[in-house]
Design brief:
The protein is α/β, with parallel strands linked by helices. The chain is built from 17 helices and 25 strands. It is globular, with a radius of gyration of 23 Å.
Length: 553
Amino acid sequence: MENRRWTALYTDAVKRAELTPARSLVDAWRARVDRRPDAPALAYFDTVLTAREVDELTDALAAGFHSLGTRRGDRVGIHLQNIPQFALCLIALWKLGAVGLVLNPMYRGQELRRLIDDAEAVGIVCADAEVPDAAETLVGSTVEWMVSTSALAFQSRNDPRVFADAAHRLVPAEYDVEELIAEFRDTGPLPVRLTGSDIALLTYTSGTTGPPKGAMNTHANLLAVAGTYASWIELRPGDAVFAMAPLFHITGAVINATLALLHDALLVMTGRFDPEVAIDAFVEHRVTFTIGSITAFNAIAQLPHASREHFASLRSVYSGGAPIPPATIGRFRERFGVYIHNIYGMTETSSGVIAVPLGAEAPIDEASGTLSIGVPLPGLDAQVVDPSGHPVSPGEQGELVLRGPQVVPGYWHKPEETAAALPGGWLHTGDGAIIDADGWVYLVDRLKDQINTSGYKVWPREVEDTLYLHPAVHEAAVVGVPDDYRGEVVMAYVSLEAGASVTPEELVAFVRDRLAAYKCPRVVHLVPDLPKTQTGKIRRNVLRDQEVARAGR
């Protein structure tokens, strides 16, 4: 672009940084192993694996996946929490030229099957406890093999806060991660020559309409994000990155896992996020960087014993995925001495691409009271455009559009949706924004109805469709309303069929049985009727505005 005015706000480290050329993530990983083969690479409670050990384990696992029929370009589902096997599977699949299909382990039934079918996955790796449900769900799908694993593997501490309900090999599948590694130890995969355009991850996102779409995150996309972000946070050899964000989310997969694995850092994992376990890991492994939803940081702040000592080693802390009230950041810094930097990204941008520079404080837009999400990272072009697609002047509102090496080439098997989202190579985010004269970006309006809760994205229609399955429900509307703890919470308005009777609590339980917990409404309001347009379309915006006004925001 002619005017990347925000580059004046870059730190000296970012201005000096030069990206190390690599054709693929595998090349970058092998370069890391060659540089410091005996340096720590993965930590999981009391176990630390060196880069050399991770390389040997992933060679064996790649050979094991190959023996099951996995080939270049095949999609393989990873249905796991933040455990070492997640990272091992990613590297192993990349060594085969295969694609990691990251799957939320909370998905069940049709939620899981819909993504498996769309991706035409040939295999899946899941936790032992999930084997029965997953096996039933995937009957008749393209999945040819299932490999199970246990969260108890690769550690011996058995922390009761994490593993109270775990049972090693509770219901094993026919194949097991550890058994495959043992069987193919000292056996490497056949070399595959990859390019930057090969797909590394298939990550699903809900669009403005229709079913979820698979964003094709390429090797070049991930290299661009991990490389620029490493310089952004001034990551150094020997640093420790705590995987606070779930690895099945694009943030966790790229600027937790990929970032650490490719840049001589230690990737610290403790399973599903627990605030007490997290701050203990900060101290034990001398964590220097982490990124997570504001909900996770709020959970830490609720621990009476959490203190500045727990954050003593952290040099950079970032949060994205949900709006952060300025007061929340202020309270956190006052207590812990840590400033939480804002960051913004999408599945289609392969994770965070707009962020507050390290050491800087995000300004607040005077008109809206909105905290800036930061400035574009190196290589990214950003504009705000009017409805006709023409750039607006600094300070004027419009739609945020992005272009750069971080942006995916499109959606899996969806050319029309790709053309609509990426006209002329510019990603239309659907988010209303302002870019001021200095280059700071502010999100000032929501152009989509999508809800961001605790860093997760929820599409209202999916929740509404689930509510409509209940025989007592006549009409339903789902909105996201502001919440200091979760960013937004899911709220539902329901009118009932004539003569029907059901309680709000029963409707919440009904949805919880069918969808992931974070998608369930926190509150259900039973109302006589829902506001509609003259054509009969339910007006979600009216309901949302009512809640905002009621809360005094």
